[in-house]
Amino acid sequence: MNIETKIRNIRFIGELSKFRIAPPGLVFNCLKACLDDFSHHNIDVACNLLETCGRFLYRSPETTICMANMLEILMRLKNVKNLDPRHITLVENAYYLCKPPERSARVSKVRPPLHRVHVHRGKYGQIHLIASLTAGLSRYHDDFSVAVVDEVLEEIRVGLELNDYGMQQRRIAHAFPGGVV
To answer: MIF4G domain: from which residue to which, for each copy (predicted)?
Structure first.
């Protein structure tokens, strides 16, 4: 059989396993057969199978251990065999698709309250909400409402000085809260 037919069939088996029509054992048997003779077409077939249903099987509680073992065998074979760069890339892509590397959570910037109030994004109907929010925050931060008004006036002044066409809509929004001139 040619490679396109093999890949089409193995992707079909992978999709069937994701819908729990084909049992996971069938996928593991196909993967084991490819890993037993890890060369040429079998590398392509194994990688396509892992790309299709590998992550699903790795994340499923009942097949996590078996899939982790298969992925470990795959990486050992990649390191032992003398593969061409295309096959190395295929194997690494399939492996990291199934088992992405651990990374730390993103740390978001903590912005001061003044920078969290974007007046220029508000609509005319929201002016009373922005004013209410500003008044509410000024109870806890004494200079907040003054700082908001100062910031709006400063934005208008800078916008007029720069006269940047891309900032025109923002200038209008600052000067005329409804955006209507």
So the answer is: 1-101, 119-174
